[in-house]
């Protein structure tokens, strides 16, 4: 029987090869021309149904895939996909691409074979006839290589149906798809062949269980997650993902025959992406209708706008890492580079609206004959106007130079060519301002965020009017001298004298500015950071501003006057610097008919960085020094509206003879010898000093860049490898670039811009297992790095004695605050800092009502510490063998301490002094966080926000009787609290945005409140729950009986809040079996319901310890 099957297969193959050789590339693929399949060819059949996955198909020859060479098994799914490893249960139905596992997807969609709706066959075939046929297909796509496979995997989706969901689409009734994927492997390389027979794709969309509507299928490859220490999305290639492109698969080809697509998927050339074949169909096989042909042949280059999408699927020899290429609905897959463009090539862009749902591409038309059109991509690696014209403004012309191209605004427009606006037209600037400012000698900063900035510019007169609202009165008057905050906009649109350029002409409104203001006679300085992002879709310039530091106090009602001034701007490639000393007069509010005035001064220096077009040498010949003249300055703070206003009149031109700086100074002659990253500061006569620019250090003659952090270096490496030195440009699809905070450390929550997945990382950027969330949900990640300590008056790390009464204690990075309670009401005006520990990141808090002691977990060292509320110095009780201690709980009766460790995935117990440690649990934990005790009953409760299986568990305090208490309808259960009076266990969930409660002995649970922002930790007292919220940086009180928010407290320091606990004025009544004489135990006494267990600490060899129940 087997011989007969093999014989018939060989005959079939010879017949098909003969057809291929005689017929040439023309004509659609017929169903009978697919590789042989079915039970008669020893195929295995996938179990019928929806979202099925086969057992592992073991391979005799290793499959190579991207950079891997050792794949020994594959998995076949119902949904048009072959997986390189077993798909996780939550990814068996189609979702966002790419998946977390390696995948070959000839038609990724939600397919269905339930009740005989088609079949899925698969096998590995080593027969010479089949391997020979596969080799022929590969060599037609890659004629320059010699390839003979040893093993071929054939997967056939035969007449499969679309999954239609609850409401069936009548248009898809009876529609069936047939297609095939063939993976051919030799000892050195692997190839994929996709076959789509004529009329084999009768539907292009299926019902998505996630989106609950029809979504197109996807043809793609994915490397899956990569990385050894930490995981991130690897390379992936999407070749079709819209209706028209999918419908084109049977009519098009990249291998010379319609319906047959060949890809190199595993070799030295595919480490960074799959390589597509590149063989043209013959012109008579192109299926353009007359209208399409006319539109191609009748267009002239000047008639068409030219935009491009520079990220293409890789070709052999390419080095790009992250790539996406979408097949055009009307452009064939054969339209790929055949070689460098010739002199007969002219470039233009087909109209974008001819190709819906397609990223625009630059196309060359080789005019071989008037009646023949051949398409190819421009493969010249040098950026030219032909392939990069889209980077210029629509009001600019593009010019090619020897090393690249430059953009220049056309007559009547001004700018740098990338951004152009009409000359003399009024301009608007919109943005946001945030600040953290210490006013006068106040130790508490004034913090404001998301404050609006609007500016209006009259270009013809160089006048700028800037308004910032709403600025708190406590800082508004003190910001009046800072006209340069709005002055940067004045410089951008200053009136230009002949031969000189304002900021917009040089930068196009795309630059970053960092400035330092030092007030004479006042300690500290103010740092101003501004990022200008060019013109938005409304034609307005956009700006983000951040203010941080110290300013002198100016009393309410005072006015500030600033005399006209000049400022010299020094230009070098991509950098502009300036510095000056500026005086201002503060007039106090009138008293008894008189108003005192005082003159003050500040020193000002700034660095502006931008991207300059370096290919046009004539652009670099502009004056190295220009003078900004500000002829009038008006500043005002409107107390009623809380609006800060700056108005300035500006012009830019040469250094004038009457300027305080003479032209003979080396700073203006260019003979100063300062480092290119330094500013030349002119002195009297010919004297000068060199000062390194912001971000650099040195003596000015030699400057070196401030050492970058690991996160910054990783960002630069990835962006550089992708040719994305300008991080403001859109990222290529699939490219992950880590986000760093303002200090250069990894932001604890990292997200992938293309996929929407988010995950937690440690201080070294490594992904923490089990933290990856689906799109739309951000995991509650913790920063393990304490912020830099700002030099200033030191605060002793000692506890101030707590006043009588009950208090809420909550943690912010570097400190613990107390908030008194009167009944259940928060006495917000009496909130004060309890303890300053600026080098720590305190996460969990617990209170011992017996000794009046607060305990905390610190994830920066990491460590566990405590301090007495009677006053005194804090102490660290545990430093060793900790990963990321987060939740912490006290058994005040048994005198024990419990904590969770999400890095080591375990729960431990110790005595209150940190001795006698014992691991209670170290299995079935992924992200344990909140933990609480029920001391009276001897129970322990904890949360685990494991993204795949979030749960709340319980056990006895000795670790026995462990069980899942709550598992359904959880998202990110963070905080947990047990109210001893009502015997309720309550929690807050950042995924479901709910606060809920349950009585452990009863099955039902109660929703207390929905619509929470981003709750982290929770505690209970009286009739309220109190939780900390990450989004609002506040403590929120929720009424348990009335199910509503009662009150909110915003601390002075607007930073993230972590753990919260209640410091009770007295302990609750009651006892357990460990309350007296340590329960008769020699070491650990762990309470259980109605009893206790004596346990020994871990690693107690030779210690006289007795375990007993």
From TrEMBL:
<dbReference type="InterPro" id="IPR000033">
    <property type="entry name" value="LDLR_classB_rpt"/>
</dbReference>
<keyword id="KW-0325">Glycoprotein</keyword>
<dbReference type="InterPro" id="IPR024731">
    <property type="entry name" value="NELL2-like_EGF"/>
</dbReference>
<feature type="domain" description="EGF-like">
    <location>
        <begin position="663"/>
        <end position="704"/>
    </location>
</feature>
<dbReference type="Pfam" id="PF06119">
    <property type="entry name" value="NIDO"/>
</dbReference>
<dbReference type="GO" id="GO:0005886">
    <property type="term" value="C:plasma membrane"/>
</dbReference>
<dbReference type="GO" id="GO:0017147">
    <property type="term" value="F:Wnt-protein binding"/>
</dbReference>
<dbReference type="GO" id="GO:0007160">
    <property type="term" value="P:cell-matrix adhesion"/>
</dbReference>
<dbReference type="InterPro" id="IPR036857">
    <property type="entry name" value="Thyroglobulin_1_sf"/>
</dbReference>
<dbReference type="GO" id="GO:0005604">
    <property type="term" value="C:basement membrane"/>
</dbReference>
<dbReference type="InterPro" id="IPR050778">
    <property type="entry name" value="Cueball_EGF_LRP_Nidogen"/>
</dbReference>
<keyword id="KW-0130">Cell adhesion</keyword>
<protein>
    <submittedName>
        <fullName>Nidogen 1</fullName>
    </submittedName>
</protein>
<dbReference type="InterPro" id="IPR000716">
    <property type="entry name" value="Thyroglobulin_1"/>
</dbReference>
<dbReference type="InterPro" id="IPR003886">
    <property type="entry name" value="NIDO_dom"/>
</dbReference>
<keyword id="KW-0245">EGF-like domain</keyword>
<dbReference type="Pfam" id="PF14670">
    <property type="entry name" value="FXa_inhibition"/>
</dbReference>
<keyword id="KW-1015">Disulfide bond</keyword>
<keyword id="KW-0272">Extracellular matrix</keyword>
<feature type="signal peptide">
    <location>
        <begin position="1"/>
        <end position="28"/>
    </location>
</feature>
<keyword id="KW-0084">Basement membrane</keyword>
<keyword id="KW-0732">Signal</keyword>
<dbReference type="Pfam" id="PF00058">
    <property type="entry name" value="Ldl_recept_b"/>
</dbReference>
<feature type="domain" description="Thyroglobulin type-1">
    <location>
        <begin position="708"/>
        <end position="781"/>
    </location>
</feature>
<dbReference type="InterPro" id="IPR000152">
    <property type="entry name" value="EGF-type_Asp/Asn_hydroxyl_site"/>
</dbReference>
<dbReference type="Pfam" id="PF00086">
    <property type="entry name" value="Thyroglobulin_1"/>
</dbReference>
<feature type="domain" description="NIDO">
    <location>
        <begin position="106"/>
        <end position="268"/>
    </location>
</feature>
<dbReference type="InterPro" id="IPR000742">
    <property type="entry name" value="EGF"/>
</dbReference>
<dbReference type="Pfam" id="PF07474">
    <property type="entry name" value="G2F"/>
</dbReference>
<feature type="repeat" description="LDL-receptor class B">
    <location>
        <begin position="938"/>
        <end position="982"/>
    </location>
</feature>
<feature type="disulfide bond">
    <location>
        <begin position="751"/>
        <end position="758"/>
    </location>
</feature>
<dbReference type="Pfam" id="PF12947">
    <property type="entry name" value="EGF_3"/>
</dbReference>
<keyword id="KW-0106">Calcium</keyword>
<dbReference type="InterPro" id="IPR009017">
    <property type="entry name" value="GFP"/>
</dbReference>
<feature type="repeat" description="LDL-receptor class B">
    <location>
        <begin position="852"/>
        <end position="894"/>
    </location>
</feature>
<dbReference type="GO" id="GO:0042813">
    <property type="term" value="F:Wnt receptor activity"/>
</dbReference>
<dbReference type="InterPro" id="IPR011042">
    <property type="entry name" value="6-blade_b-propeller_TolB-like"/>
</dbReference>
<dbReference type="InterPro" id="IPR006605">
    <property type="entry name" value="G2_nidogen/fibulin_G2F"/>
</dbReference>
<keyword id="KW-0964">Secreted</keyword>
<dbReference type="InterPro" id="IPR009030">
    <property type="entry name" value="Growth_fac_rcpt_cys_sf"/>
</dbReference>
<feature type="repeat" description="LDL-receptor class B">
    <location>
        <begin position="895"/>
        <end position="937"/>
    </location>
</feature>
<feature type="domain" description="Nidogen G2 beta-barrel">
    <location>
        <begin position="425"/>
        <end position="662"/>
    </location>
</feature>
